[in-house]
Description:
Layout: E1 8-12, E2 15-19, E3 29-31, E4 43-46, E5 56-59, E6 65-70, E7 78-83, E8 91-92, E9 108-112, E10 122-128, E11 141-146, E12 157-159, E13 171-182, E14 185-195, E15 201-208, E16 214-216, E17 220-221, H1 227-233, E18 235-242, H2 243-246, E19 251-257, E20 265-269, E21 280-281, E22 288-295, E23 301-307, H3 312-317, E24 333-338, H4 340-345, E25 351-356, E26 378-381, E27 387-400, E28 406-417, H5 419-426
Parallel strand pairs: 3-25
Antiparallel strand pairs: 1-2, 4-28, 5-6, 6-7, 7-8, 9-10, 10-11, 11-12, 13-14, 14-15, 15-16, 15-17, 18-19, 19-20, 20-21, 22-23, 23-24, 24-25, 26-27, 27-28
Amino acid sequence: MMSSQQLFPRRVFGFPIVRSAGSDYSIPQVDLSAEAADIEPLVTIDDSKPYLGHPDSILCKTGEILTFYPAGHGRGAVLGRVSADGGRTWRALENTPKSWERSRETPTVYRLEFTDAQKPDQMILISANSDWPGDQGPGGFNCSLSSDEGKTWSEFETFYDKNSSHPVVPIVAMSALTRLKENGRFVDKWMGIFHDKRFVNYKTILTFDENGRMHWSTPAPYFAAHRTIEKGSKMCEVEMLRSKGGQGDELCLITRSQTKKVNSLISFSQDEGKTWSAPCELPAALNGERHKAEWTKDGRLFITFRSIERSPEKNRLHREKGHEKRGWYSEGWIAWVGSYDDLKQGREGQYRMKIAHTYLDDQGGPNIVANGDTGYCGNVVLEDGTIFTCTYGRFGDTCMDEKGQKTLRTYIASRRIDLSLTDRLAGVSR
């Protein structure tokens, strides 16, 4: 793995950036878009509008899966769907809060477990009040709670808007929400993270008072010690996971590098996110955007992301029409399978899989080059070990846009994955 010392700042057109040479991955990539007979089919969750995007999902104790997404690109009313059969069929989530209609950013959803075993879990849905070009929002972030496994939800409560004493304008809040430990034991505190338009990455701690009301600590930068690389790579949309199946004492973060001049970065914390190791580049096999990680039943990691391919050799062979000189292309909706130790040691992992093809305008069928407008995923691991994953993208269906022109529809779709099958297809023995 490239050391942090090898990520060096340069100045191009007067702006500090971080650069490294792109490379290719060498592990196998299983192509599930081939739709082999023993691969479960792609399932449409919602294609009711010309553009639906950026889902997140959560598993209920009842076994149901809830999936939430905006009615648009990032901003738009929060919509919900429910599956009672492991993601094979879906119905609309009804009686959602009125305030969800004013959502301005991709929703994220998490389970909150408490130290008091008699206290029921809660679910929390979070949505940032981001600014958009020509459309300035109120700032802060919105939170909605459910105490009945997603059947009903509270109206949005807003924190740290532009009228508050500590205003923030988050992007993708919360890209991760991690339960914290004190003295080696889990406590009822959760660290949420987001970034802003300056690519400053913030943390804020969620707690509840004796009356059950939410409190979020004043958002504070958590990566300031590594600001040169944070700013130079335009670090954002960070995923955070805990070691040892989510029970360990080390935290790991994986970043999106928006400049695409350097791979995604990885960093570790052994003090519950108070300090972080100098970030290092991830191998090309994990380079991408909006990583979402889940621990599998057999102790491995399943990480989805939007692929970003920076290898100069590959970019000479495979280019997106109209973007031939930008130095990268996407292979679309990708998942990585490997171990936590692979992340620690900078190894490539076991294999990747292309979950489905997302189409560019000029494509009549699956291709190596894919539409990169995909990859924000909702992932859950079902009781039997089956992995459910969903995302948004252009999967080949067409519709009429607002101007009456025929276009590819962008919608929410999912796939159920049996790792024993993909292991076999990748030639991996367990």
